[in-house]
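Folding Task

Wanted — backbone structure
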Amino acid sequence: MTKAPTHEWFKSSYSGGSGTECVEAAFVQPGVLVRDTKAPERPYLLMSVGAWRSFLSGVRRNPPEDF
């Protein structure tokens, strides 16, 4: 069995650092991994670079109310 590679996960600069973060991301080939910060052992999403850019663009245009 091959061990899964480790990735450099990061959180948004808007994260409070008090356990309230909800997602982390890691840049990989061919896109971006996204996982739940509170359950890092669970499965993660693989998004294309284009989907990641669209997601960030949407958040910037319409940030959540608590930002």
About this structure: Residues 27-34+44-61 form one domain. The two ends are 42 Å apart (CA to CA). The mean pLDDT is 82.
